Amino acid sequence: MAFNAIQHTAITDTTFNLNTASGHLSEVANTSNTTMNTALSELKADPNNPAKLANFQAAMNEWSVVMNLIATVQKAMKDSMSSIVQKM
Fold this sequence. Notes:
Layout: H1 18-45, H2 50-86
Helix pairs in contact: 1-2
């Protein structure tokens, strides 16, 4: 398996809310998770293959970036919502 980065698509929805953010990030997270699990399975089958190790490391890095992005977006939205509620 050659490592394939996640294909990025432009968001054409002009409304941004928690549901749209969650939906788009969920798709990316699922793709990243699948890529990482596939790379791990291939590494388990041949742990001495440097190419498979590199693919797994790249998949892990991508997964880490995606999870950090999700956490950052969730925290920013939580902070925004808390600020709005506080000012009511």
